[in-house]
Amino acid sequence: MSAYHPLDVTEAIAIARGLDGVFQPDAQLTCREIGDGNLNLVFHIADPAAGRSIILKQALPYAKVVGESWPLTLDRARIESEALRLEGKLAPGLVPAVYFYDQELALTGMEDLSDHIIMRQGLMNGSRYPLFAGHISTFLAQTLFFTSDLGHNQQEKKLLSRSFTNPELCKITEDLIFDDPYRDAESNSFEETIRDEALALWSDGELHLEVAILREKFLTHAQALLHGDLHTGSIFITPESTKVIDPEFAYFGPMGFDIGAVLGNLLLNYASREGRDGSDAEREDYRAYLLDTVTDVWAQFEAKFLALWNEHGVDRLANAAPGYKEHYMQRVLQDTIGFAGCKMVRRIVGLAHVADIDKLADAAARERAQRLALRIGKSLIKLNRGAVSINQLVDTVLAASAAVKA
Amino acid sequence: MSAYHPLDVTEAIAIARGLDGVFQPDAQLTCREIGDGNLNLVFHIADPAAGRSIILKQALPYAKVVGESWPLTLDRARIESEALRLEGKLAPGLVPAVYFYDQELALTGMEDLSDHIIMRQGLMNGSRYPLFAGHISTFLAQTLFFTSDLGHNQQEKKLLSRSFTNPELCKITEDLIFDDPYRDAESNSFEETIRDEALALWSDGELHLEVAILREKFLTHAQALLHGDLHTGSIFITPESTKVIDPEFAYFGPMGFDIGAVLGNLLLNYASREGRDGSDAEREDYRAYLLDTVTDVWAQFEAKFLALWNEHGVDRLANAAPGYKEHYMQRVLQDTIGFAGCKMVRRIVGLAHVADIDKLADAAARERAQRLALRIGKSLIKLNRGAVSINQLVDTVLAASAAVKA
Q: Where does ATP bind (chains A, B) (predicted)?
């Protein structure tokens, strides 16, 4: 194929038509560019008559977030396609199928998931996904266990880690999640109504110590191949199906960062219920659903991970040492809780927010939701190294909710 | 140059003669192969008349340890030469100068250090090196700080870490230090007189838990570029000069592994004093010198590392978070103590021993030294996560000595 340039609709159709066994030669193809234009072009190409469709996703050589733009490596498209393929092998059915990857064009052809919706939107709609905890815990257990030193040949893991070296995307996380929210950074974005909260974040030494320790783990703890950006906007969902997308931040890091991203984003929606319409009873019922999902994701993850370890553990000493499994899982839980908190705080005062809260129309309700999210996030960060049970996370959330109400 | 093959003396001379500015064109060169033949060829090439000399070191495509032989990547020569160059920049004068590296031949030309002796031999001779603690603490502080996320651009560090991916050499450590001594492995080697000690190692669950946690750190904690094999046989020394050699095990791992290697090998010599000639007073005096060196290495390392951090720290949050530096240094100390213990245990029951102890002629004295080394090693491993001061290491050593005497 030709040298890198952003594709147009005509080129995208030509590429799709050239793929073996996807479309009939004489098919009438439609094409829409459906990306948000901030990082990638996303072409949806369909043959409506035959009911067939495909996604072509092309990386752009820059990133735009909330109006800012900076150059960004095209290599992230390779990392994304390789991560999707590996995740697809380890967690079949839980990521879109990858049909091809073109290095030159930074272009991936993949399964069209238009029958799914983005989970963040689903939660904002008040939908429930009773199969989600089962699906995402399988995804987490399978991808994290089998890329770790517990479940992967330890020499091959080092080579795999080398191929997922991802400095530019990691830097975004290191800055936006683990630094800027804790100082008066230009990149920060928050409403003036909660400036007191921002000031409190910038001067909270106890919090800074915990975030520094979590930041160090993100920088140095090459535990398993992470998705790296596993919020509810990276999950396509229906009541029956869960598909994890967009692993362009993939790299070898601490397992709790992925698990915490899922839990933290469920809790952001929990906090957003301060500003949702409906009766108190409806709100509390949905919140109970979200909290049940949080504990269920952890409990199922832990059980599945341990089952994999018992059956497929490759590290003799790790398998045999008395108490090691318990010690390991407790540290993953602690990391999960700490990272969940970091993921919440950055979404309120940092550069990139979440629609769950930003889209609340009522200013007072939005402010309550922001304050609740920060209270939960900070409490989880401070809890992390002392945690021994997921129930402590639940207690922390309930206590923060009660305190905000009072 | 030609494709890879082991060089002979004639070829080595020809290569040395071809180097710019090393020897005169008409020099009468002598050449001796002085390697031990287990991993590398080492050619010492000299012009005695001019008083000039050079070392050519060539990796062999296999490793031999105590009669066993297995294939081993030639890439370790690249890693060694790159590590030496980087260490030479960060810690000038503390490693041999590298003149060239030939990838094809896995051949490095470097400074001749024939006026130094191997430190292990120096300690066995009872020599004292009052400048050593200052030198090695500078080497450790400079190389570890400036390759860590505290002192190195965090994105470039990821790329540097990628280029020091070293699975084959790491596997040797993972097996021989962090697995085999704790099970009835074929590779183990110990005298029948201490079979009771081996059996105790294999069934000590508390010890296995600590070793499993240290093993995990070695596998996953990409904290800084390590030398990776920093025992007293990897150090050339005179009373005035210290040169760290042979970093072919270099990779990004936990700092405490390098520091612990130094301390553990000083303590192996300490244990060997059970079987050395001389009066009790002489023995205790030399032991006091070794223990003073141990505490001095740590204390100077800590002070120099913190001074570098205060002046050159690149991580805003790590620099600013109250209590983080203390927390960081305490964890490095804990790792140091744990890894020092692992380094001692493996030298008594594992595949590769140390001359300090193996060369003791008197069987009863040798056995006492072995039991003392194991007692110290196990105690340090069990102490590691609870340690808050280097004095606890000293107390542990003294208590073990007293217990063996009793």
A: 40, 57, 111-113, 246-248
Sign of CA dihedral B139, B142, B146, B151: positive
- What's the gap in Å between the CA of A164 and the closest CA on chain B? 9
B112 labelled ligand-binding: yes
Q: Is B397 left (phi over 0), alpha (psi -120 to 50) or beta?
A: alpha
Distance set, CA B233 to CA A125, B118, B268, B363 (Å): 67, 6, 12, 24
What count of Cα atoms within 13 Å lies in the side-chain half-sphere of residue A327? Answer: 17
Residues 6+ apart with CB under 8 A from A44: A31, A32, A33, A34, A53, A55, A112, A114
pLDDT tens-digit map of B179-219: 999 999 999 999 999 999 999 999 999 999 999 999 999 99
Q: Do B209 and A179 touch (CB under 8 A)?
A: no
The answer to whether residues B136 and B258 touch, using CB atoms and an 8 Å cutoff, is no
- The answer to whether B211 contacts A317, with C-beta atoms less than 8 Å apart, is yes
Q: Answer yes or no: do A321 and B208 touch at CB < 8 A.
A: yes
Beta bridge partners of A117: A237
Reduce the secondary structure of A264-278 to three states and give it as a string: HHHHHHHHHHHHCCC
pLDDT at B66: 65
CA atoms B77, B83, B85, B88: torsion sign: negative
Nearest residue to B120 (alpha-carbon basis) of B232, B35, B244: B232
The span from the CA of A336 to the CA of B95, in Å, is 42
pLDDT at residue B83 greater than cutoff 80: yes
Of A168, A212, A320, nearest to B321 by CB-CB distance is: A212
d(C-alpha A405, C-alpha A403), whole Å: 5
The predicted-structure confidence for B39-78, as pLDDT tens digits, reads as follows 899 999 999 999 999 999 999 998 877 667 889 999 999 9
Helix (H) or strand (E) holding A361: none
Other C-beta atoms lying within 10 Å of the C-beta of residue A162? 15
Determine the residue among B317, B327, B331 to mutate to test chain A binding: the one whose Cβ has the most chain A Cβ atoms within 10 Å.
B317
Fold of A9-110: Phosphorylase Kinase; domain 1 (3.30.200)
CA A256 to chain centre: 12
- Rounded to the nearest 10°, the torsion over CA B332, B333, B335, B337 is 160
Q: Are B332 and B172 in contact (CB under 8 A)?
A: no
Q: What is the DSSP letter of A94?
A: S
DSSP state at residue A354: -
Question: In this predicted structure, what is the pLDDT of residue B2?
Answer: 64
Asked whether the beta carbons of residue B205 and residue A324 sit closer than 8 angstroms, the reply is no
Instruction: Indicate the CATH number of A117-405 among 3.40.50.720, 3.90.1200.10, 3.50.7.10, 3.10.180.10.
Output: 3.90.1200.10
Tokens of B165: 């991916």
**Cβ proximity of B267 and B293 under 8 Å:** no
CA dihedral A241, A246, A252, A258 (to 10 degrees): -50
Closest CA to B46 of B30, B33, B57: B30
Domain boundaries, chain A: 9-110, 117-405
Q: Report the pLDDT value the prediction gives residue A66, as an integer from 0 to 100.
A: 65
Residue A2 pLDDT more than 70?
no
Shortest Cα distance, chain B CAs vs residue A393, angstroms: 24
